[in-house]
Predict the structure.
Amino acid sequence: MVFDARSSPNVAALRESATIAVSARAAALRAQGRPIIDLGAGEPDFPTPGYVIGAAHRALDHGATRYTQVSGIAPLREAIASRAAGRYRGEGTITADDVVVSTGSKQALFNACFALFGPGDQVLIPTPAWTSYYEMVSLARAVPVPVFGAVERSLKVTRQALVDAATRETRGLVINSPSNPTGAVYDREELTAIVECAREEGWWVVSDEIYRSIVYEGLAPSVLDVAASREGLVVVDGVAKAFAMTGWRIGWSIAPPDVARAMTALQSHTTSNATTLAQHAALAALTNPGAEADSRRAMVSEFRRRRDAALSLLRGARATVIEPAGAFYLYIRVGTATADTPDPGTIFAERLLEDSHVAVVPGAAFRTPEWIRVSFAAPERDVLEGVGRIIELLASHTTHPRGSLPLS
Ligand code: PLP
């Protein structure tokens, strides 16, 4: 839905989140008594680890009920800064003053886009990408410019593709590795090339690293691992996915000090500090390395089992799927866009929901309408049953590109 003429130009072109729309339709069908398998979810289906919950109880008992500094409590910002500083080898240091704690990484990303980009600016977005980047850049009255990668490279973009898409108005790029929706991970070499290119061109890099600790092959490098300088770099992360803490709403940005100050000022006029209790919970999450490692290992190994089982079904069916090296999504190609059928992914997802009772997110939400996103943050039984029904529908669906190659 695009909002009507009664609303101001601020939101005139704003679209509601497609991922939320899918959940709403799935919930409505469920309310009618239909047994919906929900593979649309964007959050780990695990409880927040017990050591975090315990710390939150203790913080409440100790009166963590008041406002904090807008940018967050000092020990949390220090913990974030010291983890980041531990991996950064470039010029200068990272301190707690560079960190702004926000209400989810979503707010951190919005703060960054709003503080860095404005009217007339163009912002490159390696695509497919999380739906909110395009809207956040547009809310800042800048222009999101999708840049596409090849299927053979798991839809990741190259330095050259970014350069080719750039104009004199290009001010920055928003990169997300591991990626939502593809799970693709930029390796060190690829990330270095992009960060160096941005530096040479004078672009801001906003790096959304929210899925970085959910990886299945090797590690997912941070831009901090490869950058020679922090100038021009804003790193965004949070506890939502890594610690199964989506509802606590704690994320953060690490930015050069002047940008951190601008984002703090912006946040001071919108939401002030992130919820005090949740900040204490996030502090516990980040400062108990043994408990963190144990709970992460359990979660990632469960995701890996589901991923491997689902991939083997899809490969057996010769489906075109991006093999996710991280995050918890399978990106599957379900059709070919034509003038008559510009959005085959949405048609497929609607049929899948209405006839096969499986909810997934159409690729149009990520500006790639030939695909669907399937979350494996659901019980393994549901994931395999849901993927089985997707394969059945692929076999009968007319917009499916026959003879397409399976990817690995
Ligand atoms: N970035 C990406 C790529 C996401 O997929 C999401 C949530 O789905 C977020 C950011 C938002 O995370 P948070 O819950 O920390 O706001």
